[in-house]
Amino acid sequence: MFAGTFARGGAAAEVSGAAWLAAMLDVEAALAAAQAGIGLVPAEAAAAVADACVPGRHDLAAIAGRAGPAGNPAIPMVAALRALVPPEFRKHVHLGATSQDVNDTAAMLVARRALGPILADLGGVAAACADLAGEHRGSVMAGRTVLQHAVPITFGLKAAGWLSALDRCRAGLAGLRLPAQYGGAAGTLSALGGRGHEVIAGFAAALDLAEPALPWHTDRTPVAELACALGTATGALAKIATDVKLLAQTEVAELAEPAAPGRGTSSAMPHKRNPVGAMSALACAQRVPPLVASLLDGMAQEHERAAGSWQAEWETLSDLLRLTGSAAAWLREVLEGLRVDTQRMRANLDLTDGLLMAEHVVARLGGGPDARRTVDAACATAVEQDRPLREVLLADPGVRLSPEEIDETLDPALYLGSAQVFIDRALTAHHDAERALAAGPALHHYGAP
Predict the structure, then answer these.
(1) Max CA-CA distance within the chain?
(2) N or C: which end of the chain has fewer CB within 10 A?
(3) Which residues make beta-bridge pairs with 210?
(4) How confident is the model over 407-432, as a mean pLDDT?
(5) Measured between alpha carbons, how far apart are the two ends of the chain, in Å?
(6) Taking all residues of the chain, what is their mean pLDDT, rounded to a whole number?
(7) 266 a catalytic residue
(8) Cβ neighbours around 259 below 10 Å, total
(9) How far apart are CA 227 and CA 229, in angstroms?
(10) Given 305, 344, 346, 372, which residue is catalytic?
């Protein structure tokens, strides 16, 4: 019922029950192949395991139904897998592994596969921000602090700020080190004598995951780092969505989301055009911090294997990946079709009749306490008497500026400071980041183009 809001984009399919089962079967096939590679199991056994690891040969509902009583889904999955392998090779299924090895490695595979569409959509959002920053570098608008007019900025600068945050988040996600897990009952791989450690490199390589120095059953930093990176990315998306929804308000109307039949309508009011994309991205983002907190809270685990906190990760991580992906997909659609009303931006600049230029007036009068007192009094008079600040300044004998100088001082386009430099810096950093992502090995791991 709610998947249209909370399961938008490609990440949702990558965290489904079917996707988890496929990942777990991939783990078992890779483990047998790695063991065959160093002679621990016959090659024929590894081939038989691989043949039995085809997802279509397994009953997802049956495995899921037995997962609860068993304590985790790996146990019934391994039982089903053994039943499909010829009897002479069944002893080589899941050799030396424990259920957590399968679940943890599958979790890293699921995450890696879900990060593909997440990074693609984040890249689309970033590209749209870069386009907006370049196109609207000179589109002057009111800067707003504490929801009030502050000093002039440009919409390009606002978009450059969105872009800079997104690029940091994308780099953090793309640089994650997602490791395979293989440690056996208590992290020693004792069932394989002294050769267990030899399996790990081939096992990780077969799955295109990082090779850990040692098993990490109760070292949950890989999961925690993933959670924090996803949470940070979703927070950056939520910032953009918040700006869009505020600037799309009827009274502001500087931005509008893409229009389409049935999009953003109301069941009661025919005239409504709700910012459904920003709204939905924010609904996803609001659910993310508790999920991140849950995964961080689960880092305090008992001894060599946890009771409860590890199990709490499974669905939490899936939800976190799905919601981050959905928020990114929503914002990509919003920004790629965003409508910017520069005339309305200019009109809103004039709402306070020059008051947002008061800081510039202080500077033109020489700065310091005396200039500040003069401008404070002029602003108070303008508000109390509902007069333009220009008119009040012209009438004040203490303001020794010509009408032309006052007009120049009150022109928002002439008080933008280093905005253009900052936009250029953000765009340059973005282009550098794009080149680094395209060249970096981590990008390959997430299936990005």
Answers:
(1) 103
(2) N
(3) 179
(4) 97
(5) 32
(6) 94
(7) yes
(8) 10
(9) 5
(10) 305
Q: Give the count of beta carbons closer than 10 Å to the beta carbon of residue 272.
A: 11
307-328 b/e (C-beta count within 10 Å ≥ 16 → b): eebbeebbebbbbbbbbbbbbb
The answer on 121 and 207 residing in a single domain is yes
Q: Where are the alpha helices (DSSP H) in 208-312?
A: 221-247, 276-297
Residue 142: predicted pLDDT: 98
**Residue 125 identity:** V
Give strand pairing partners of 154: 140
* Residue 336 within a domain: yes
The answer to whether 138 and 344 have CB atoms below 8 angstroms apart is: no
Q: In the structure, what pLDDT confidence band is assigned to residue 449 with cuts at 50, 70 and 90? A: very low
Please tell me the distance from the alpha carbon of residue 423 to that of residue 433, in angstroms, as a whole number.
15
Residue 103 to residue 109: CA distance in whole angstroms: 10
- The C-alpha atoms of residue 38 and residue 23 are separated, in whole angstroms, by 23
Question: Domain check: are 238 and 387 in the same one?
Answer: no
pTM higher than 0.90, yes or no? Answer: yes
Per the domain annotation, does 93 fall within a domain? yes
Where in the sequence is the domain holding 433, given as residue range(s)? Answer: 3-345+429-445
Q: Which two tokens stand for residue 163?
A: 């872009």
CA distance to 193, 242, 371, 399, 409, per residue, from 396 (Å): 92, 41, 12, 6, 15
pLDDT at residue 360 above 50?
yes
Cβ-contact 38, 202 below 8 angstroms:
yes
Q: What angle do CA 387, 392, 396 make, to 5 degrees?
A: 160
Say which of 57, 266, 400, 418 is annotated catalytic: 266
344 counts as catalytic = no
Strands (E), 133-191: 140-145, 148-154
- Identity of the amino acid at 229: A
| Pairing outcome for strands 339-340 and 148-154 | unpaired
Q: Cα–Cα distance between 117 and 19 in angstroms, integer?
A: 14
Provide the percentage of residues in the chain whose pLDDT is more than 70. 95
Three-state secondary structure of 373-405: HHHHHHHHHHHHHCCCHHHHHHHCCCCCCCHHH
In the predicted model, is pLDDT for residue 438 greater than 90?
A: no
Residues in the chain: 449
Enumerate residues 6+ apart whose C-beta is below 8 A from 142. 149, 150, 152, 153, 345, 348, 349, 351, 356
- My answer on whether 341 and 361 are in the same domain is no
Query: Structure tokens of 382?
Result: 């303008």
Q: What pLDDT is attached to residue 447?
A: 36
Phi-psi region of 422 (alpha: psi -120 to 50; beta: other; left: phi over 0): alpha
